[in-house]
Specification:
alpha+beta; Cytidine Deaminase, domain 2; 6-stranded mixed sheet; 6 strands; binds tetrahydrodeoxyuridine
Amino acid sequence: MKKKSLLIEYNEYDSLQEISLKDRELLERAKEALENAYAPYSKFRVGASVLLQDGTIVTGNNQENIAYPSGLCAERVALFSVGANFPGAVIDTLAIVAKGDLVKEDAVISPCGSCRQVIFESEKRQTAPIRILILGMDGRVIEFKKSTDLLTFAFGL
Ligand code: THU
């Protein structure tokens, strides 16, 4: 038997002032997108913005349904929109912003397990990592370099 361990690294910025203007703009687009979320059941709005390598920004937001599992998270709405409308595009960054009192004041809304699996497959398709940028509820910004920092032992690895 071999005992093994994994270490993940990520960056935490105290506030938006610490990140680049470009990243601030990307988070701003996600913030705008969350206003159009359809979240009458959870009242928890999530916005996602995807920066493509050519500079295009594609956004998404959570879309709920009275048959709860039929809804979809903001991240997947945005990523599938890229797949549908920009086939072959290379994704550089996925930015996420949330609003609502479902979570604690200092929570960081990191993507759910299903979204992580979808980010992972997007990386596989483009054979390049996707950076993940999250604006915490308290103004902190968290940055991951790739999906497997959030999803170790991803299915299909
Ligand atoms: N949600 C997202 O859109 N992204 C996440 O990362 C977590 C959860 C949505 C799903 C649902 O519409 C609402 O937030 C409450 O779970």
